[in-house]
Design brief:
Elements (H helix, E strand, L loop, with lengths): L10 H5 L5 E4 L2 E4 L4 H21 L3 E3 L5 E2 L9 E2 L3 E4 L11 E2 L4 E5 L7 H17 L3 E6 L4 E6 L2 E8 L4 E3 L8 E3 H4 L2
Parallel strand pairs: 4-7, 8-9
Antiparallel strand pairs: 1-2, 3-6, 4-5, 6-8, 9-10, 10-11, 12-13
Length: 185
């Protein structure tokens, strides 16, 4: 009895998807979040948007933005962070994904993003981000109300920001700061 293989999804298939999704290993992985994680991601986006507009440099994006990358060893071909900042060339067709990784990515944990398996997935995704060229990644935990900064230059030396602290995303977003209280407001 012969088995029938599935057709490998492409970036063109991903373009036709509504909502947040990523292309990994030829599969479209849909992503959805709850109220609190979405509000937190929105707070980060708003702050990044104010920063980019005041500097006249770079672009802030919400969770539906697609960043297309060459297929990585993990099979990943795209990123769609919860909030991001990009400071590079824009696509010739403004309706398409950005070719390349975000300069900075914020990943906000959702209800099922806790425990050893989720931690391993987050770590693997950071490896992909850094291999693709992202300079800094935030791992944002709405339950603990912490922001953990990972930098490509020192990926195994995270910096944890707690309530009352001021978080940054250096060197990806030079001079941008956000209080942890505002992240979780």
């Amino acid at each position: 009895m012969a088995s029938i293989g599935q057709v490998r999804a492409t970036l063109d298939d991903l373009y036709r998807m509504e909502g947040q999704a990523e292309l990994i290993g030829g599969r479209i992985v849909r992503m959805a979040t709850g109220h609190r994680p979405n509000q937190v991601a929105g707070n980060i986006f708003v702050s990044l948007r104010v920063y980019s507009r005041s500097r006249g440099k770079g672009h802030a994006y919400t969770d539906s933005m697609g960043f297309a990358v060459s297929e990585m060893p993990s099979g990943r071909e795209s990123f769609s962070p919860d909030a991001s900042y990009y400071d590079g060339p824009l696509p010739a067709n403004s309706m398409r994904f950005i070719e390349g990784p975000p300069t900075f990515a914020a990943e906000v944990r959702s209800e099922n993003d806790y425990g050893p398996a989720a931690n391993a997935e987050y770590a693997a995704k950071r490896v992909d981000y850094f291999a693709a060229g992202t300079l800094a990644v935030w791992d944002v935990d709405p339950l603990a109300e912490t922001v953990t900064l990972y930098r490509a230059a020192a990926p195994h030396q995270p910096v944890v920001f707690r309530k009352g602290a001021i978080a940054d995303a250096e060197p990806a977003v030079p001079g941008w700061r956000m209080t942890v209280d505002d992240v979780f407001a």
